[in-house]
Amino acid sequence: MANIQVFPTPAVLYHSAAEYWVRTAKRAIERAGAFHIALAGGNTPRGLYQLLATEPYASQIDWHRVHVYFGDERYVPRDHPDSNYRMAREALLDSVAIPPEQILRIQTEFPEPELAADDYAQVLQSHLPEGEIFDLILLGLGADGHTASLFPETPILTVRDRLAAAVYVKKLKAWRISITYPAVEKARQILFLVTGADKAAVVTHVLSPSADKTLPVQHLQAQGEVSWYLDAEAARKWEVTK
Ligand SMILES: O=C1O[C@H](COP(=O)(O)O)[C@@H](O)[C@H](O)[C@H]1O
What we know:
It is an enzyme of class 3 (hydrolase). The chain is built from seven helices and nine strands.
């Protein structure tokens, strides 16, 4: 059963998510000496990343022990405005003392997206602790029900033998590279961040136990703890129907 919390504004949500990150990082570092986290891309998490780079959060985290991965990436150069890595770098990674070799971005320099995905699958296998388990994966939710780049009606949804894969998203006319269901499902903790009125319909669908299981996020068989942090706008229809 997921833990679902609704916050009045994105700003309040970001503070709670920053506290969640700090708690989870401290616990992982106490337990294993390292914190392995996969970041979400898109717009929603930017405010969280910016907050983590400031006080009172930044000094509570031992950044030297943080290992950063990405849940998905657009197949664009790393300094492209659409790059998830660029967003995270500008909002957080440039401002904190994570050793560069512990920032494991999805390398989009490969001539084919499949090669970039194969490379990232190897990176995950060789860098994640035994069992390929993330301590925390941050995820978003698209209005069409995608999470990471697990888009509806795409072949990546059936991939279970690799930790990362490439996917062509017809409606975007673009390639993405994403971690796959098995990589997500093994995580110790998953935190979804969803804000904005444009997500209200999909939030209601995804969080209603009786809704048709048509969206990728509904097929996630998470083994660890799952939390949903919603702002009031995103939760508005769900709160009415629950
Ligand atoms: O394209 C993407 O979309 C989702 C949701 O993004 P948001 O801006 O609507 O929050 C995101 O989680 C994913 O990482 C990203 O590549």
